[in-house]
User: Which sequence fits this backbone?
């Protein structure tokens, strides 16, 4: 009777490489006291043998941390996601630590080393993703991760949570077209972010649906922050044939457009209609209250946390790809063109 050959172990990989078991273990645990060349040899052997550390069938409730990683912090948008993650984590008796990538969409090597050395229950990546090599390194160590508002299409085996950005862009633009606007500008987010591209596609689809033409000169790239809305808004509103409406792509950029309009002497909504995106708490408090697209940020954070902890605790999540709906919220910043 032929027995089933056991899978690779730390000991068998150490023997193959002529290294000690503690050395291989140090690489697995992200310890810094291993020579780079040795570390590369061990990582290559781990990948060759498809080594995967076994995660306990069920991590005890209240044990471990969730590493919440943002490509950039510092806006009301990120605070809404943090609140959703923290609420869900507290309910499930877990804690959250924050990391920030300085605007990059791929974590640097030092982040990976730190994460491996203090292995969390799992990782939540916001508007960021891992390279294939980073994905494999976390997978080998039994550290799951979930992507929120991904910057691109994640691997098939990675869970993700987002919202219907295409429909959000469509609803915002349909609203402006229904009011009678035809010179509609859009300030997008970064072109390397999937959510931004989807909103632009919705913007274009609404024009096509209405038989209206998009003027390429009225579509400007921003970064979802106030400064970009102000700078691009000033340029757009200073054009000889300026737009009568601006879909600002985010509430923060909409604030910048409102400031630009005020500086130029345009009244909102009498001279200019403005639509934001996200429906942050401040959207209903600005003057005038902002028409925007509600993106369920807190719900996205909470849902991603639930999925991550299900995976970490050995349970199969109900869904691995979740796309929450968006909703147009009409307030006082939009009106028919003068």
Assistant:
């Amino acid at each position: 009777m032929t027995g089933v050959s056991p899978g690779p172990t730390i000991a068998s990989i150490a023997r193959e490489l002529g290294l000690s078991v503690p050395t291989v273990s140090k690489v697995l645990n992200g310890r810094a006291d291993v020579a780079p060349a040795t570390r590369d040899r061990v990582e290559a052997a781990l990948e060759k043998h498809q080594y995967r550390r076994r995660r306990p069938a069920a991590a005890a409730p209240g044990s471990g941390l969730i590493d919440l990683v943002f490509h950039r912090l510092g806006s009301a948008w990120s605070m809404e996601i943090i609140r959703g993650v923290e609420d869900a984590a507290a309910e499930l008796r877990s804690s959250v630590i924050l990391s920030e990538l300085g605007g990059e969409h791929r974590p640097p090597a030092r982040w990976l080393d730190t994460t491996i050395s203090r292995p969390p229950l799992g990782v939540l990546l916001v508007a960021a993703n891992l390279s294939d090599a980073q994905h494999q390194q976390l997978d080998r160590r039994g550290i799951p991760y979930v992507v929120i508002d991904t910057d691109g299409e994640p691997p098939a085996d990675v869970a993700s949570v987002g919202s219907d950005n295409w429909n959000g862009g469509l609803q915002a633009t349909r609203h402006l077209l229904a009011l009678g606007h035809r010179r509609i500008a859009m300030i997008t987010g970064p072109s390397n972010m999937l959510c931004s591209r989807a909103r632009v596609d919705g913007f274009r689809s609404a024009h096509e649906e209405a038989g209206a033409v998009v003027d390429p000169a009225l579509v400007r790239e921003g970064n979802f922050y106030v400064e970009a809305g102000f700078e691009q808004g000033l340029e757009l509103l200073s054009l000889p044939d300026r737009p009568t409406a601006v879909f600002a792509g985010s509430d923060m950029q909409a604030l910048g457009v409102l400031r630009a309009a005020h500086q130029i002497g345009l009244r909102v909504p009498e001279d200019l209609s403005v639509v934001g995106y996200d429906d942050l708490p401040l959207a209903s408090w600005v003057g005038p209250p902002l028409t925007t697209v509600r993106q369920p940020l807190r719900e996205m954070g909470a849902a991603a946390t639930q999925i991550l902890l299900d995976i970490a605790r050995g349970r199969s999540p109900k869904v691995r790809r979740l796309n929450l709906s968006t909703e147009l919220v009409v307030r006082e910043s939009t009106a028919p063109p003068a």
About this structure: Confidence is low (pLDDT under 50) at residues 1-5, 56-62. The radius of gyration is 24 Å. The longest strand covers residues 65-70. The chain has eleven helices and twelve strands.
